[in-house]
Specification:
Layout: H1 2-32, E1 39-40, H2 42-49, H3 53-61, E2 67-70, E3 73-77
Antiparallel strand pairs: 1-3, 2-3
Length: 84
């Protein structure tokens, strides 16, 4: 049973290490997203459309704006913005 427990601990440590590495990579990707990426945050979209952030959230929920998930953030596709 001790060997089984040690094997579990080793696998858990490796999974934690890989998860931390993946988080670093995703952070770099998010930080590298610029204006020419085709993606905007909800706040950026709200400023461009001169509406509130809650309106943007509602538009995403209703399917009026296309978005993608980047980690836990919803990023709006510029191509889905009306008139932009």
């Amino acid at each position: 049973m001790t060997e089984l427990y040690l094997s579990y601990i080793q696998k858990k440590l490796e999974a934690d290490r890989l998860n931390a590495e993946a988080e670093k990579i995703l952070s770099r990707i998010i930080n590298s997203i610029g204006d020419d990426s085709g993606l905007l945050t909800a706040a950026e979209t709200a400023r461009r459309l001169k509406v509130s952030a809650s309106t943007i959230s509602r538009m995403m929920d209703d399917g009026q704006l296309e978005f993608t998930h980047v980690r836990s953030r919803r990023m709006i596709l510029k191509s889905s913005l009306p008139g932009i």
